[in-house]
Specification:
Elements: H1 2-7, E1 10-15, E2 18-23, H2 25-54, H3 59-75, H4 83-89, H5 99-130, H6 145-157, H7 179-190, H8 196-212, H9 214-227, H10 233-242, E3 254-257, H11 268-288, E4 295-296, E5 300-301, E6 313-316, E7 323-326, E8 332-337, E9 340-345, E10 347-348, E11 351-352, H12 355-367, H13 387-397, H14 401-411, E12 416-419, H15 433-442, E13 455-459, E14 465-469, H16 476-494, E15 514-515, H17 522-540, E16 542-549, H18 554-559, H19 564-580, E17 586-591, E18 600-604, H20 608-618, H21 624-646, H22 652-665, H23 670-676, E19 682-686, E20 708-710, E21 718-725, E22 729-737, H24 745-763, H25 768-774
Parallel strand pairs: 8-12, 12-13, 17-19, 19-21
Antiparallel strand pairs: 1-2, 3-14, 3-20, 4-5, 6-7, 8-9, 9-15, 10-11, 13-14, 16-22, 17-18, 21-22
Helix pairs in contact: 3-5, 4-5, 5-6, 7-8, 9-22, 11-12, 11-16, 13-17, 19-20, 19-21, 19-24, 20-21, 22-23
EC number: 2.3.1.21
Main location: mitochondrion
InterPro entries: Carn_acyl_trans, CAT-like_dom_sf, Cho/carn_acyl_trans, Cho/carn_acyl_trans_2, CPT_N
């Protein structure tokens, strides 16, 4: 076979007169090119590291300062106020240097010190400016004079052409709120959910906590905030994600869908080739720090720390806690297809494989008819089941021999790719096509995704794609950033031939992908089957409903002078009450990435103002004017809560950290224990769109994504992800559990639709009749399957 000959780098024969050594010129050439590429990569990383390290200054500014100091030597003006002379007199080995040499060296040293001082001054000035958050509390479309001045100063101190990590050292630390403020906001958030007696008891617990141990716990948190870059994020990752021993499939991992209306090609191998190549391009820019940092208002920078672990990252199971393993410079991919694992090199001759070359490799895997080895088919179910059995099996059966080599290949891969064998995707002609697509991405068959990888890329036979992402290393906007880049690159830069193949010449001389080898004993196969059955029970219980709301979108909501997010959140509160006839604790995720190493904070959306609005909507005697006034008041309250969460004045992360400190100190707080045990029966999140603005969706309205979603958080509650797409579309991803007699995702989706239309009708009373006629009657209490 040609591939076998190419795999041999050299041959030698031992003869009486010596050794006859024959080297393969092709292999030597590849080794040389790989070395050149590696050194080039290191040089670019070093250069960009220097640029980010001295930002907002530049290396050329050092030369300017040095020239200015050197010039002072000749015009007999001393801007250093005698410091250059002092340095000159204290130089070591000055007896071996001429007077001129000492003067020049002293000027250079002083200039360097002055330059470094100016860099730190600029950074701390920018950090002080970024600590101001008054701008975020101003009304949309209105900007005060002080904010305009502040924005101009931020732009002035931000420099030009920043790299991805240029602003990291200038981002402020997440502030620790005062205990009094947090307790006050907490009591305010639970007031609409408790009766008078329950609220009085909660007040007593809160006051006892505040008077007894709160001050002591707060001191430790303040100390940590001074020492660590973020007082929340490391504990949040460890205790919320890594210490969880339940399955991460459905319970933690989330998914992101492909383009909604467009499929660039229906050839599975070709689509996977373009997408994987686009991911490699993204990774190269990420490793070099060449992506532009995200900035609010186009000026205020966001933290980029989470992006560092996007590739070459795996969650490693442990008995008590997992760890996140991040490697560098991984050059291979592991592909799963019909129960077989394949190792695929992503580089040849020191460069990425081209899309056409990747298509060839993926097609070879699709054409492979070999059978899975014993235990190989459902091996990935170990990552879908409980963490402790997986950790023990990993130690016992995968710590040596071929099993260790193959597992290392998976865990060290750039990412994991599944070539699925069942078509998925949104099809308006098929009922529940979005539901099936979401469930496939969320859990699949429970053994065809490696749920521990930072993300699994999923390719379907009809050309559709999707992503299943592990949650501990980053939040959804980070994966969404990468996915937007990949889809735009795939469709608008790489493209396809008329036949649907990747562009470029076909290289059939590449070594074939190789099968990973396994020796899995029957005892391990039994553990795999147990994990599979456990995961399948979870997957089968997921009741999912996805739908597209296109009656109106962000464009209409903004004309009503209301925040689109507040509008949707109040619609969710109205839908929740109509569905359950009670109000519940509601979780909405907000980002805190304006701070160093920031992740998320909770917005408690079920406020007293929201409750008053919902009750008015259900009160036949309330007028439209009364309902509209209550809606605006509730929307303003929600916006204020959201802004407080974004600026470090949230409730739940602070209480979570206080609880952890109490556990470390061995003290018991009934108040904190009560707070941390409250169930979130409605968990919501908005997936951001157009973070990069690479595609003009007004010009290309069909090139929009459907967003993504997650599994239900509570056994008897709902998980709702929504995506505001352009001006006229909102997509909803709703999950619950079939095992709960109180929930029905389809029913809840219809409640959301009616709530959205009912709120819109407040602004157009004359359309009330049309709105009611347009609504489809609810199917009460009937599960959809």
């Amino acid at each position: 076979m040609a591939e076998a000959h190419q795999a041999v780098g050299f041959q030698f024969t031992v003869r009486p007169d010596g050794v006859d050594l024959k080297l393969s010129q092709e292999v030597i050439k590849n080794i040389y090119l790989s070395g050149v590429t590696a050194w080039k990569k290191r040089a670019i990383q070093f250069k960009n590291g220097v640029l980010a390290g001295v930002y907002p200054a530049s290396p050329s500014s050092w030369l300017i300062v040095v020239i200015a100091m050197m010039s002072s030597l000749y015009i007999h003006v001393d801007p250093s106020l005698g410091m250059i002379d002092a340095i000159k007199e204290n130089l070591p080995h000055r007896g071996y240097m001429s007077v001129q040499t000492r003067a020049v060296l002293s000027a250079i040293l002083f200039a360097t010190g002055l330059w470094l001082f100016l860099i730190y001054l600029l950074r701390y000035t920018l950090k002080a400016l970024l600590s101001y958050h008054g701008w975020i509390f101003e009304s949309h479309g209105k900007m005060s004079t002080s904010t305009k001045v502040w924005l101009s100063l931020v732009k002035m101190f931000s420099g030009r052409r920043p790299l991805l990590y240029s602003f990291q050292a200038s981002l402020p630390r997440l502030p620790v709120p005062s205990v009094d403020d947090t307790i006050h906001r907490y009591l305010e958030s639970v007031r609409p959910l408790l009766d008078t007696e329950q609220y009085r008891q909660m007040e007593v617990l809160a006051n006892e906590f505040n008077e007894s141990m709160a001050t002591r716990l707060q001191r430790y948190l303040i100390l940590k905030s001074w020492w660590a870059t973020n007082y929340v994020s490391d504990w949040w990752e460890e205790y919320i994600y890594l210490r969880g021993r339940t399955p991460i499939m459905v319970n933690s991992n989330f998914y992101i869908m492909d383009l909604l209306y467009v499929t660039p090609t229906h050839r599975q191998a070709a689509r996977a080739g373009n997408v994987v190549h686009a991911m490699l391009q993204y990774r190269r820019k990420l490793e070099r720090g060449e992506h532009a940092p995200l900035r609010a208002l186009g000026t205020v920078p966001m933290c980029s720390t989470q992006m560092e672990r996007m590739f070459n990252t795996t969650r490693i199971p442990g008995i008590e806690t997992d760890i996140v393993q991040h490697l560098t410079d991984r050059k291979h991919l592991v592909v799963y297809h019909k129960g077989r694992f394949f190792h695929l090199w992503l580089y040849t001759g020191g460069r990425h494989l081209l899309p056409s070359e990747l298509e060839t490799q993926f097609q070879r895997i699709l054409n492979d008819t070999s059978e899975p080895q014993p235990g190989e088919l459902k091996l990935a179910a170990l990552t879908a089941g409980n963490r402790v059995p997986w950790a023990r099996a990993r130690i016992k059966y995968f710590s040596q021999g071929v099993n260790k080599v193959s597992l290392d290949a998976i865990e060290s891969a750039a990412f994991f790719l599944t070539l699925d064998d069942e078509p998925q995707g949104y099809d308006p002609a098929k009922t529940n096509s979005l539901d099936s697509y979401a469930k496939s991405l969320l859990h699949g068959k429970c053994y065809d995704r490696w749920f521990d990888k930072s993300f699994t890329l999923i390719s379907y036979p009809n050309g559709k794609m999707g992503v299943n992402a592990e949650h501990s290393w980053a939040d959804a906007p980070i994966v969404g950033h990468m996915w937007e880049y990949v889809l735009a690159t795939d469709c608008f830069h790489l493209g396809y031939t008329e036949e649907g193949h990747c562009k470029g010449d076909v290289n059939k001389g590449l070594p074939h992908p190789t099968r990973l080898q396994w020796q899995i004993p029957e005892e391990c196969q039994s553990i795999i089957e147990t994990s599979y059955l456990s995961a399948k029970q979870i997957a089968d219980d997921v009741d999912f409903h996805g739908y597209l709301f296109n009656d109106f979108g962000k464009g209409m909501i903004k004309k009503c002078r209301t925040s689109p997010d507040a509008f949707i959140q109040l619609a969710l509160q109205l839908a929740q009450f109509r569905d359950q006839r009670v109000f519940c604790l509601t979780y909405e995720s907000s980002m805190t990435r304006m701070f160093r190493d920031g992740r998320t904070e909770t917005v408690r959306s079920c406020t007293s103002e929201a409750v008053a609005f919902v009750r008015a909507m259900e009160d036949a005697g309330a007028t439209t004017a009364q309902r509209l006034a209550l809606f605006r008041k509730a929307a303003d309250k929600h916006q204020n809560m959201y802004r407080l969460a974004m600026t470090g004045s949230g409730i739940d992360r602070h209480l979570f950290c206080l609880y952890l400190v109490s556990k470390y100190l061995g003290v018991d707080s009934p108040f904190l224990k009560k707070v941390l045990s409250e169930p979130w029966k409605l968990s919501t999140s908005q997936t951001p769109q157009q973070q990069l603005n690479l595609v003009d969706i007004n010009k290309f309205p069909k090139y929009v994504g459907a967003g993504g979603g997650f599994g239900p958080v509570a056994d008897d509650g709902y998980g709702v992800s929504y995506i505001i797409v352009g001006e006229n579309l909102i997509t909803f991803h709703i999950s619950s559990k079939f095992s709960s007699p109180d929930t029905d995702s389809y029913r809840f989706g219809q409640h959301i639709q009616k709530a959205m239309l009912d709120i819109q009708a407040l602004y157009k009373p004359e359309n009330d009749k049309k709105t009611v006629e347009k609504h489809v009657p609810l199917e009460n209490g009937k599960k959809h399957i």
